[in-house]
Design brief:
The complex is a heterodimer. Chain A is of the alpha+beta class. Chain A is 37% helix and 20% strand. In chain A, strand 12 (222-229) and strand 13 form a beta hairpin. In chain B, helix 8 links the parallel strand 22 and strand 23 (402-403). Classes of the chains: A alpha+beta, B alpha/beta.
Chain lengths: 616, 452
């Protein structure tokens, strides 16, 4: 596909948590260790008028949903700052330094004074209903295959609360993630890059962050958002990539989805349909005697049923806009996001839903013919709130102006999440005073910038004699820092260490019975100390790791003894060889027999040597 | 305010704060709106609002090019709300006096102003329209509550009395939280024969944010003023850290017990009068309250401002009392320790460790003999003072100190000013200070009334 021709424009935002002891604006621990909440509090959030007297559309949407937010507080990891019960403390300078380091590695200018802002967010993910954020870098760039990727700005901000669960009208959040320092790196508009390349750029930005050695690692510590539009059309923001490798596929899907929606729009516009002017009609009484189970449940719960006429749209809701996903489903996603279970419509198989007679009634009430679509929506309240949103959504599609946030699903498709926030949702955080950046602080950081990951890659290949593939794998690994530490402090084969952190761990991950979370840095350090001191052989490492996941509190040296994996001395091997080897035995068979007795406790090369000696 | 050097450069380039500008420095260009500076930080750093909404600081350098490239952004217009009329709803009056609940953040500049009119406050809480019919809105002054004086209390009492006597069934007073309990106490004494609900309400979080706590406080205040059968001044604020219900605390039995939590206001030495939910449910917790009636109220605002609170603590210098006497003060509330103690040096064995100059006895004696009442309260806040348990107490009592029962020190201070506004007769003052007038003294303490 010619991405330039279709007018693909992508903006990339990479969010990376910084590794610090404390949060960005208080002294709560940023370790995320606690599991059990010490307190759960509940709050509501309401729309706030911006300076123009308008309420931000995303904010209004949240208010419409009228949800209650429950916040779990954790020991040492939550204080009154996170619960919105105390003003922020001074900014965490350690986090600021790391952020500046990343900014300088991305060739950004550092502002002379840091101004903390409040970014309005009323989805409950922050008890304050805003996120504190400050620009720490501007006008930077990343060199990508000889091309310049603009980094328009970089900010240091508070991470939002992690969602812990959701049920009707209630959302649960964990306050331990709230306020963890996070950098947000925003590229300028990327044009002429393929989805694969964009994925690779996201990866490289992540690598820049990681090369500081001061960012968090593991699931959820780095997250990407992607803004995407084609042919100058509406912008969507894709959020919640479970893994970086999904980016290219998701962009491809989004391109198809946007093109399909656009062709629907063009067709309908051509037919003269530019706006849905009909209003939702309350048909609760007309359908009082329905046998349809869904509608019966709504009526039983005291809800109301509304019907919408979509003129001249017969057949369109059946249209596939992505493999397996119809246009009707796309509208249903909106209904779901606004709090109902779904919608029913005449482009579905009416015999399946047993709605044929109801539709007959509705066609009369709404004065609709076969060329029109009728949509039925069960509302929980007395007002056609969700129904109006469906019309709203249709009209925005018809006008081609819809801006929305979509959640990325595991299969690389996306789902309507909420309207995209407008501008004017940023204003100064008056509780934190502007922080002048001393010139010498910048120059000091500049002087001590860590080597880039590309330099590191070359060094690993050249000095450590790692293969290109292995070097790349270890550089991407969460264990990069630990790898470097071990290589520095222990005399062990670098490729052995690298392989443990890459393929060995990958193999162990496949074992559902093993809890790899139990593996701590010190375990690996102890293991390689034993390897260095020739107490165990490298072949024993997988077994030792397995055992540690089961009893992480034991010392590795004890585990090795228990597993009987302590390396045998040459004399011991010789003793075993003498007992095993019989005269006239073929050499290979003799080695095999001895090996079977000392497996995991002796280096095969040594065994061969000793067997040879014994047989002579 | 920028530094004089920057201001001069701006003037020279014909640039005003608010203008859209282009700033060039060492080959780099920045565009955005020039934001007026807060007084804090480096005053010679230009604050530019970039197109992405962020503010950032660019240090001014001599010879830097600053050019106006577009008109100034209009300063944030504060949205107001036209109030929907519904005569069938209970009629109340709304009085705004400033404080966090009345602040307005200019979203563009970040300036915080205490300028919100009642109409502007109501923008954030449109629900009020469906609870009460707001007959009138007053804004006698707009100040932070720490700047309040007896004159403000007097004016407020006059306004509230006038409003109530015009026929509304209740009043809502929006107020800064720091001294909200002083005002609620002052109104409790000054609104004589009050039998209508008067809610004093504030906010601990600013209205610019979606987590604005004043929203629920105002909603519950409207239920209190419009629908409750309580005929007293009450502080209506968050009951817990959750957004679930508010307490209505008696105006003379409440205190701000936390600098920043939304449930900072607690009833002391009695249970709150009622629990109020934002959906309108009102549950009476403490039956001991004056019932609603349509009677006229009288503003009895005479107040002697020459009263003071002093604190007795280990090592405190009692000469502070003499100083106040010299300054023509007419009454002093002592915030004593525990049951109402002050150092006397008379307890236990006499040792040289206690400097006799630190004994409060002669100073209290001196004050009382000059006709100046000394009211003893406790910095423990919870509980009642008692003149006879320990020898030091008896000595203070004998010296002429008046023991203020279970009155909060701040309430005793307000009451003393109000009483002295009516009589200077020492015996009369002492008698009134120990008589319950506005719910400030309870006969007995409910054993549940601690840390609630």
């Amino acid at each position: 596909m010619d991405y330039k021709k279709i007018g693909l424009k992508v903006g990339l935002e990479v969010h990376q948590q910084i590794e610090t002891k404390y949060k960005l604006f208080c002294k709560s621990s940023a370790e995320l260790k606690e599991k059990q909440p010490i307190l759960t509090l509940n709050r509501k959030q309401s729309p706030v008028a911006s300076e123009l007297g308008e309420i931000d559309i995303a904010t209004e949407y949240e208010a419409m949903r009228d949800r209650v937010f429950y916040y779990h507080a954790f020991k040492n990891e939550t204080c009154l700052v996170e619960t919105d019960c105390e003003p922020p403390h001074e900014m965490n300078l350690e986090a600021l330094q790391t952020a500046m380091q990343i900014a300088l590695m991305l060739n950004c200018e550092i502002p002379d004074e840091i101004h903390v802002m409040r970014k309005t967010i009323t989805d409950g993910s922050n008890p304050t209903a805003f996120q504190r954020t400050a620009i720490v870098g501007m006008n930077g760039s990343l060199n990508y295959k000889g091309r310049k990727v603009p980094i328009s700005y970089m900010s240091l901000e508070e991470d939002a609360s992690a969602i812990a669960g959701e049920e009707e009208g209630k959302v649960y959040y964990r306050l331990n993630r709230t306020g963890i320092p996070l950098v947000e790196i925003s590229t300028g508009i990327l044009e002429g890059f393929s989805p694969e390349e964009i994925q690779d750029i996201a990866f490289q930005i992540g690598m820049v962050c990681r090369s500081t050695g001061k960012v968090k690692r593991g699931i959820g510590t780095i997250r990407q958002d992607i803004n995407i539009s084609i042919g100058g059309g509406a912008r969507t923001e894709l959020k919640g990539f479970q893994e970086l490798g999904l980016i290219a596929k998701t962009i491809e899907n989004e391109i198809s989805r946007q093109s399909s929606i656009r062709s629907v729009r063009i067709e309908l516009n051509k037919k003269g349909l530019k706006e849905i002017k009909t209003k939702p009609v309350d048909v609760t009484e007309k359908l009082r005697n329905t046998q349809n189970l869904v509608l019966k449940t709504i009526l039983g719960g005291g809800g109301k049923i509304f019907a919408i006429l979509l003129p001249d749209m017969s057949g369109y809701l059946k249209k596939e806009i992505l493999p397996g996903k119809t246009f009707g489903r796309e509208l249903a996603d909106v209904a779901v996001a606004f709090g109902v279970k779904g919608i029913m419509h005449t482009d579905e198989d009416l015999n399946k839903t047993h709605l044929s007679s109801e539709i007959k009634i509705l066609r009369e009430v709404l004065k609709g013919g076969d060329e029109d679509v009728i949509v039925i929506i069960g509302e929980t309240g007395s007002q056609p709130k969700v129904s109006n949103q469906i019309i709203n959504r249709m009209n925005q599609i018809l006008a081609g102006i819809k801006q929305e946030v979509r959640g990325v699903q595991e299969d690389g498709t996306t789902k309507y999440n909420r309207p995209l926030s407008g501008a004017a949702r940023m204003y100064p955080e008056t509780d934190v005073i502007p922080l002048p950046v001393p010139k010498d602080m910048t120059s000091k950081i500049k002087k001590n910038l860590p080597e880039s990951w590309i330099e590191k890659l070359e060094k690993f290949k050249r000095n450590l004699k790692l293969s290109d593939d292995l070097a790349k794998q270890i550089i991407r690994s969460d264990y990069l820092q630990l790898f470097e530490k071990i290589i520095r402090s222990r005399k062990v084969e670098p490729s052995v260490v690298a392989n443990v952190f890459t393929s060995t761990l990958k193999d162990l991950q496949k074992r559902a019975d093993l809890n790899l979370d139990n593996l701590q840095d010190r375990h690996f350090e102890e293991i390689f100390e034993l390897v260095e001191k020739k107490k165990i052989i490298k072949e024993a490492i997988p077994e030792v790791l397995k055992e540690i996941t089961k009893s992480p509190n034991k010392k590795v040296s004890h585990v090795v003894v228990e597993l009987e994996m302590v390396l045998l001395s040459d004399t011991e091997i010789e003793k075993i060889a003498k007992q095993t080897v019989q005269k006239g035995m073929p050499h290979e068979k003799a080695v095999g027999l001895v090996m079977s007795k000392v497996r995991g406790k002796a280096d095969p090369k040594t065994v061969m040597k000793i067997v040879k000696k014994v047989m002579e | 305010m920028y530094s004089p050097e920057v201001e001069a450069a701006l003037k020279k380039n014909n640039v005003k704060a608010g203008d859209k500008v282009r700033v060039e420095r060492s080959g780099r260009t920045y565009e955005g709106y020039l934001i007026p500076r807060m007084e804090l930080g480096d005053l010679s750093t230009l604050v530019i609002k970039l197109s992405n909404g962020y503010n950032t600081g660019i240090k001014y350098e001599k010879g830097m090019r600053i050019k106006k490239i577009g008109p100034a952004i209009p300063f944030g217009k504060i949205p107001t709300r036209k109030i929907k009329r519904n005569e069938k709803l209970p009629h109340v009056s709304f009085v705004a006096t400033g404080g966090t609940i009345g602040t307005h953040v200019d979203y563009k500049t970040g300036g915080v102003f205490m300028t919100r009119t009642p109409e502007e406050i109501l923008v954030t809480v449109p629900e009020l329209e469906d609870i009460v019919e707001i007959k009138s809105m007053k804004r006698p002054f707009t100040i932070a509550s720490e700047d309040m004086t007896h004159r403000h209390w007097q004016e407020l009492a006059e306004i509230v009395a006038k409003e109530l006597n015009r026929g509304v069934r209740g009043a809502i007073v929006a107020h800064g939280t720091d001294t909200l309990h002083f005002t609620s106490a002052a109104l409790s004494f000054m609104l004589k024969n009050l039998q209508k609900p008067v809610a004093v309400v504030g906010a601990q979080r600013s209205p610019d944010r979606g987590s604005f706590d004043g929203r629920m406080n105002l909603i519950c205040s409207a239920h209190f003023a419009g629908r409750s059968d309580i005929g007293e001044v009450c502080v209506v604020m968050h009951g817990t850290t959750n957004d679930d219900f508010c307490f209505a605390h008696r105006g003379t039995k409440v205190r701000k017990m936390h600098t920043s939590r939304r449930d900072a206001f607690r009833s002391i030495n009695e249970l709150p009068i009622a629990k109020i939910w934002p959906n309108g449910k009102i549950e009476v917790v403490n039956e001991n309250y004056k019932k609603f009636s349509d009677k006229k109220v009288e503003a009895d605002t005479k107040f002697d401002p020459h009263v003071a609170i002093v604190k007795a603590y280990p090592g405190s210098n009692p000469e502070i009392i003499d100083w106040y006497i010299k300054k023509n003060y007419n009454g002093i509330v002592v915030e004593g320790t525990g049951l109402g103690h002050a150092p006397t040096g008379e307890s236990g064995e006499k040792t040289k460790l206690f400097d006799p100059k630190l004994s409060w006895i002669p100073h209290i004696k001196n004050a009382v003999s000059s006709g100046i009442p000394i009211i003893m309260t406790s910095q423990s806040l919870y509980g009642r003072v008692h003149p006879f348990v320990y020898r030091n107490l008896r000595l203070l009592y004998e010296a002429g100190a008046t023991f203020g029962e279970d009155m909060l020190p701040e309430v005793a201070y307000i009451k003393l000013g109000w009483v002295l506004g009516h009589t200077k007769n020492l015996e009369k003052v002492r008698e009134l200070m120990q008589t319950n007038i506005a719910g400030e003294i309870t006969k007995e303490t409910d054993p549940r009334a601690f840390l609630v």
